[in-house]
Amino acid sequence: xxxxxxxxxxxxxxxxxxxxxxxxxxxxxxxxxxxxxxxxxxxxxxxxxxxxxxxxxxxxxxxxxxxxxxxxxxxxxxxxxxxxxxxxxxxxxxxxxxxxxxxxxxxxxxxxxxxxxxxxxxxxxxxxxxxxxxxxxxxxxxxxxxxxxxxxxxxxxxxxxxxxxxxxxxxxxxxxxxxxxxxxxxxxxxxxxxxxxxxxxxxxxxxxxxxxxxxxxxxxxxxxxxxxxxxxxxxxxxxxxxxxxxxxxxxxxxxxxxxxxxxxxxxxxxxxxxxxxxxxxxxxxxxxxxxxxxxxxxxxxxxxxxxxxxxxxxxxxxxxxxxxxxxxxxxxxxxxxxxxxxx
Amino acid sequence: xxxxxxxxxxxxxxxxxxxxxxxxxxxxxxxxxxxxxxxxxxxxxxxxxxxxxxxxxxxxxxxxxxxxxxxxxxxxxxxxxxxxxxxxxxxxxxxxxxxxxxxxxxxxxxxxxxxxxxxxxxxxxxxxxxxxxxxxxxxxxxxxxxxxxxxxxxxxxxxxxxxxxxxxxxxxxxxxxxxxxxxxxxxxxxxxxxxxxxxxxxxxxxxxxxxxxxxxxxxxxxxxxxxxxxxxxxxxxxxxxxxxxxxxxxxxxxxxxxxxxxxxxxxxxxxxxxxxxxxxxxxxxxxxxxxxxxxxxxxxxxxxxxxxxxxxxxxxxxxxxxxxxxxxxxxxxxxxxxxxxxxxxxxxxxxxxxxxxxxxxxxxxxxxxxxxxxxxxxxxxxxxxxxxxxxxxxxxxxxxxxxxxxxxxxxxxxxxxxxxxxxxxxxxxxxxxxxxxxxxxxxxxxxxxxxxxxxxxxxxxxxxxxxxxxxxxxx
Lengths: 343, 475
What we know:
The structure holds two protein chains of two kinds. In chain A, 75% of the residues lie in helices and 3% in strands. By secondary structure, chain A is an all-alpha fold. In chain A, α5 runs antiparallel to α6 (117-144), α6 (117-144) crosses α7 and α10 packs antiparallel against α11. Chain B has one domain (7-441). The N and C termini of chain B lie far apart (59 Å).
């Protein structure tokens, strides 16, 4: 089965791309602020924590909105997939939602709590870590397969099916990857000792992330036959080699930017690149399935009238959203530094 | 522990619990966002310090309430799938689109401009800051527009067909889906309720500080007087409008969901010669009658049909399996209506006090306003319970039963998540409410510190931009 040539650009495929774009945008944007929450555990000085939180306070809410678009978009464009995947991943998703509540309110509450600030610092760390882990678990559980009763159009497995060594491993991978995004984000937004520590952490986290990408890439083809053929059969192995080369190149760029050029912004961009490449690899692995290997995007798609009606709005509004989101980032650009200001 | 309890019932309790908690925050922040936009505009237009003081005072409370609304709202967007998957599969092709429009047009707008509204006045200048504040307010309204359209469709479905193969509802006309028959009434009634909710909270806080200033023998600050006065104008003008809108919404419900109105009125029996308005009674579903009923003859017919002798059908015309539970609907409706008239009463009292020139010097009026502070939140929940429980036993009225809508989950899974939601919500939103009350307890001083100057605001150190560090006029 050729990988790219059989992607036809009909409405269903376009919607699959829109949802994938929303999820990818969510992963990289909330990825760095969740990662920052994970790294909160390693920084104990109050001022460092204040600076870290300030670097995302004006934007985290917008970042998290992409998660709502991912979920809401799946509901609207692929209602059958939404109604099978969500019950199948019930426990990890509920845990993720509760964790997101804890960390989301911590942004506001830790400034209001007088004696109890440590409670919201702990909630921020725990919430960020659990939410990241559960997102990885959900991805792993989707990749390894979900039991579907196609006649009943429903999930047909038990409520612990999602929990396997593979899904837990992907959960760890996401925690480490998000921490890398957070560390490189902080390299670009801070100065002095904090920035220096983040450089060192980003180096370790970068190595670990690439290790996890390699391990998941080698493990997942053995979960389902289709994955194996997609990546290792005949000329497809060239694609696999290409992706591996890209990951290695980005890794080299990351280390170079961190320690050779000691650049402030390129480490974050290289880490983003690792996520984008991994995400495209995932998409190629799953296509044309939305629930591998039970339900294709075509089986799950909403009727044409719904697709058209929504595409008009998405086509107009997503570029507008990207424009004013970019503007908000532009307004809050620059280093965060409490007392010395901008140098 | 949960073996004896039905998984569907647990899922219903969980949805009711999470949506009720969530709804309190937007009910407050929809009005507050507009209030902040008005305050900021008045500050820019008049240059009077009190408006800036009020903006800075309320924006801190807004930031807290909004954050809680956002995080509790994310839960809702996933719970349709996790707990109501059959409903999601069947109704998704129709209501998924307006929900996607809510995310695209409203959520991103609010989130994108919230940071600038809260932290960006120095960075973008007064004009763009005003625009960002207005965008957040507009976003809250758009959000209400889309989600109430979806909710209204579940009450009065329109513009759809049923796919014979998949049994899904499929859209035939999105204009009819969005502007379904109950939507205009529900939107007007709910958004007005949100404005009233905010007005009574603001008025309650203003009255609290007026009383405290009086007790301490101080003069109330201009900001305190202004917020109380603005809130009382809202109460006097909007409360009667709301009662009128509620009546229209009720007539619309009578046309499309008569069983709900029967439950609200406690009309188990049909009344061929004019129906009484029951003020009190104990609904008895088992015997299908209203015990200890006390009512005013023929008044219900007058209200609903504008004719004393108009016949009104009762629940005896509705099959048992299609009836909503009367007790909850009957009582929640009365709580809402009683609070609505109490709001009107306070509004009229404030008009009288204003006319006598004693608006800031009438302790009993202020005590009443403090007591009525949370009345909007209670009325909003009571109204929501009336309409949602009144839709039972259906999720899509008349077409899809609640019992047939739930996800194929086992009761222990739903029971465990329900307990987790209860524990986390009470801990988190309890703490948040405490922080909000503490902010409210502090008096709006002249020269209210800004969010970023005070020791309690995030982003007091949000990166400084070269060239913009200088003193900003008016800031």
